[in-house]
Write a structure and sequence with these properties.
The chain crosses the membrane at residues 67-86. Keywords: Membrane, Transmembrane, Transmembrane helix. By secondary structure, the protein is mainly α. It has one domain (12-94). It has helices spanning 12-23, 31-36, 42-94. The longest helix has 53 residues, at 42-94.
């Protein structure tokens, strides 16, 4: 975990740097043998399931925020265009 101070105004470059710093452990050499060897106890099976699920959750979370950051302005622009178009159409109906 990393303690982040200050307001949440990081740029996309800062977000990528933070993500790389905090996901290096997921690709380390000590985690791959754990995932590749056969589980002998139910605790190891549960740990492997948790580890894979957690990695999948982090990937979804990271790419979800990345997609949102890159494309939210397009959604806002579309809403603005639709709103202005509907207002123009409504005004033309009454004249």
């Amino acid at each position: 975990e990393k303690d982040i101070q200050g307001p949440a105004n990081g740029t996309l470059k800062d977000i990528h740097t933070f993500a790389k710093e905090n996901t290096d452990h997921a690709n380390n050499f000590h985690t791959q043998p754990i995932l590749q060897r056969e589980a002998k106890t139910w605790q190891e099976t549960l740990y492997k399931f948790y580890f894979r699920t957690n990695r999948f959750y982090k990937q979804i979370n990271y790419y979800g925020w990345r997609f949102a950051e890159l494309h939210v302005f397009k959604l806002v622009l579309l809403i603005m265009v639709l709103t202005s178009t509907l207002k123009v159409n409504n005004k033309s109906l009454f004249f």
